[in-house]
Amino acid sequence: MCRGGALDSEALHCPEALDPAWNLDKDGMQDPGPSMDHMQMQHVECPRSVLDRGPDPEVMESVQPSVSPHGRFERLQEDPNYNSRFTRAPYHKEPRQLQCFTFRYLLAGLVLLVLGFLVGWFTHTSSVKPRLPAPESSGLLKELLDGIKADKINSLQRSFSSLSDEGEEARARYLYRQWVEFGLTNVQVSEHTVLVSKPGSTPNTITDRSSHQCFLPTGISCDQREPKDGLQQQFSYAAYSATGSVQGELVDVQYGSVDDLRRAKDTLNLTNQIAVVKLGKAPLLYKLALLSQWGFAGALLYVDPCDVPFSRSILHQIFRVTLNPGGSPAIDEAGGNLTSLLVQPISAFLANALLSCVSMENGKQCVPLAMPPNAERKKITLTVGNQLTYKKIFNVVGYLRGKKNPDRYVLVGSRHDIQGGGSSAIVNQLIAALTEQTKKGWDPDRTTVFCSWGGSAMGNIGSYEWGKDNSVVLQSSAVAYISLNTPVRGTETLRASASPTLLQLTSDIQRRQLLSCIRGGNCPGPNVSSLQLPGDMSFFANQLAVPTLEFAFEQTAAEETTSFLSEGQFPVDSPETLDPLFKFHETIAKMTAEALFRLVNDPVLPFYPLDVTLDVQNKLKGMSAASPLLLSSASALRDHAAFFQSEMMRPANDPKERDPSHMRMLNDVLRDLEKSFLLPQTSPGVFRNLLYILPGKTPQFSVLSFPQEPLLGCSETNKVQKHILCGKAVNRSLSLLLRAVQSADRLMCAGLTLFENE
């Protein structure tokens, strides 16, 4: 039987209408090629004798079923250039004509029945109010940003600040009620009991053994202590430091680099001594690991005034650090510490006195602190009395469900401790603005997970604990992490940090926002980098290789050489003091909202694999130790990423090409690219994600700047031994780098293979 399209009823009575006058043989009928679209049916006059004897078997044998999914005749009728040349042939009234009329009446009745059913259906459903269609993306984004106002953030901050004297649980419960009221789903408050380090009942002290003078970390004498110093004590200790007392000579090791330590070792015995170390230029945990291996017993930390702008006076300021790399520390209350060193932060004023510096200023030029060559080294007693205690911390998590891909998550993280500043107010404003759009008909493509973390100051404990509990789901479902760790900690510099995958998106957003700068034209240009920074994003970037981004206003210039100053937690002014009009908060909220909107709404994730590959090649430039295989692998990765970005991603932005399964596979390839650069283990304080850079004028891979092993071997004074040990460390690092580049290239190639037949 021929499965052609419907023909006129007269044609059914005339078998010669199927005569080989069509000029088709059996093979031609089976060929679904384009030439079939130009066939024209010829009308053939058929006499009654032909009608009476029925169809010719030879003719019917030559008509084969169509292999087209729509049928041969339907394909012809779908051709806009097709015009049927069928003519109605006159014939006499016969019984078959009666059958034809009967068939027509039945067909007309069926059509009327279906039409009546449809009319009834639409009449019945017309009373149901349809959901308003969502506006276009550009209009929706504008409406979203217009709904974010400084006065709304100010109001939310005043409400949150009223809980400043309450415990962390009260603040978490407040956020829970707010998020439920705004319309988030599945809002939960999770509780974790963790071990935290706090100052002891008596302050930590530094005593000059020659003069027997006792100093507090601020630099004032112990006998001049006032009641207000108890509050400062909360910001003048190193969490999870070893405790007790140690005596030793002070050794100025500047920033604690390998070269600094080598110079000190050339003239001094470093065993059981106390190092005086500046923050900056390298991770604190890496410096402490070096000091411990070199035999030091203690360390005094300070910030050199020359490393911060003149507009900020830190001479007498104290600060706090944490030695916890993340999560609940793997120690118990009875004993054990994260380091064998006694560590204590001190003010620059006290550091200047202990190092016997002559002057910190030479006219208008700042002179870095350093012990004079001929100065007598002081002998001190360092006493640290920190206490370990168990404490409950609370996380708040809520969901704004996506429609098309609800199992793909974009996380937005904030913190609800006092040091978070306006973090909670901004995230509340974001939630209110987004849920307002969903009530008007907007459905995000992906799910947004809003998180407010507890225990951030002690080593990002809340984010680590929640991340580890949900790591299996996050590894396959997390798309990106947007940080609101401390969004406004100054008003001098607008800084953006992002993984290379998101650098282009972050730069575009920052550039657009600066066009309407709150300073009216005296605005800094885009300042975007992939610097490794402390904060709650570290678990997601460092453990899961989830692409991250963060916008923040800072008080200090965002210079690479001093970026690790942010490891020191200084007392911060309230959001109302820093930003009375909340215009800086509004700017951060709008930039974050635009990034979030793009990440949850764009059909193709706004990730740019070519930026990642160019970043890799840029870091390999001038690296003499890079092998030809490494360079060629990086070049191949660049070529494949460029082809993937132009031939796969760009066409997918065409609405006609948006096949759901195609889009999902494409986005999964983009999501997984950074995972290729995740190392199994690195040196203390160094990100496992190779794509993040450390301070320095020339970008380079952190694994080469701070090799994992041996920390001490590359500092041997014996040149032969140093060459051997350092060579092994560099070769191992280069091997890990090569493996990462080749893994990323295989992912790109696999992505191209998936779509080669599309």
UniProtKB/TrEMBL annotation:
The chain crosses the membrane at residues 103-122. The keyword Transmembrane applies. It comes from the Eukaryota. SUPFAM superfamilies: PA domain, Transferrin receptor-like dimerisation domain, Zn-dependent exopeptidases. Keywords: Membrane, Transmembrane, Transmembrane helix. The keyword Membrane applies. This is N-acetylated alpha-linked acidic dipeptidase like 2.
